[in-house]
Design goal:
about 230 residues; mainly beta; hypothetical protein yedk fold; 7-stranded mixed beta sheet; 6-stranded antiparallel beta sheet
């Protein structure tokens, strides 16, 4: 799963946006939690755009905006079957740029937070979006797509976000072309090496938006499914 993440300006994040055709800097966002506003990249008639979306999908057909069901993550295995996700999976795919996400790992009976990022401090995570028009104004919302964890990541969580490598982003964002439920984009693999750093327990409070809380309290760990230098470009 993915329940918290950060957006912190860096050369790596700026390059990721340029690769996607976006020439702007994202506003910093620390310890972002579900229902908060996030930067969503999607492709419109004139090309890629960045919009602000609520991180908790509200389907277009919903009677009301609700948190009765966990809609901030979407399991890749059920995208084509879920009433909430199958429509967006066919025609409303986007991605959420981030610097890294936070996961909790049980250690000696205590769940401790870890920051997961890449060497470039930039990740492109697969997302789905929808627009609900049952209120005073249209509501754009999104969900992050997850898959089964790669073997190396399982000590941290059984699920992980679908991180799109450079070759996959254009195809994911091209809503004119279908993506099969068993597409390799959802594979349980570390497509790029990940850097993991333990964080202070203070990040457990979603109201803590202090960037200093993301500086880490221990040594960084490198996770990779491949020898150094063998991964695809992020």
């Amino acid at each position: 799963m993915c329940g918290r993440f950060n957006v912190i300006d860096s050369p790596g994040l700026q390059q990721l946006l340029r690769d996607l055709g976006i020439d702007l800097s994202l506003p910093p966002a620390v310890n972002v939690a579900p229902t908060e506003q996030v930067s969503l990249l999607r492709v419109g008639d004139a090309g890629p755009v960045i919009d602000t979306a609520r991180w908790w999908l509200t389907p277009s057909w919903a009677k009301e905006v609700s948190q009765a069901y966990s809609m901030f993550n979407a399991r890749s295995e059920t995208l084509a079957k879920s009433p909430a996700f199958r429509g967006p999976f066919r025609r409303q795919r986007g991605l959420v740029p981030m610097s890294g996400f936070i996961e909790w790992r049980a250690e000696e009976g205590v769940k401790k937070p870890w920051l997961i990022s890449s060497e470039q401090r930039a990740l492109a995570v697969a997302a789905l979006w929808d627009v609900w028009e049952g209120g005073d104004a249209p509501l754009l919302s999104c969900t992050l797509v997850t898959t089964a964890a790669a073997p190396a990541f399982k000590p941290w969580h059984q699920r992980m976000p679908v991180i799109l490598d450079k070759d996959e982003r254009t195809r994911w964002l091209d809503n004119s072309q279908a993506i099969a439920p068993d597409d390799a984009v959802f594979r349980s693999e570390l497509k790029v090496p990940l850097l993991l750093r333990p964080l202070s327990q203070s990040v457990g409070n979603a109201r803590n938006k202090d960037p200093a809380a993301m500086s880490g309290v221990g040594d960084e760990i490198l996770l990779s499914d491949k020898p150094r230098g063998a991964g695809r470009s992020l």
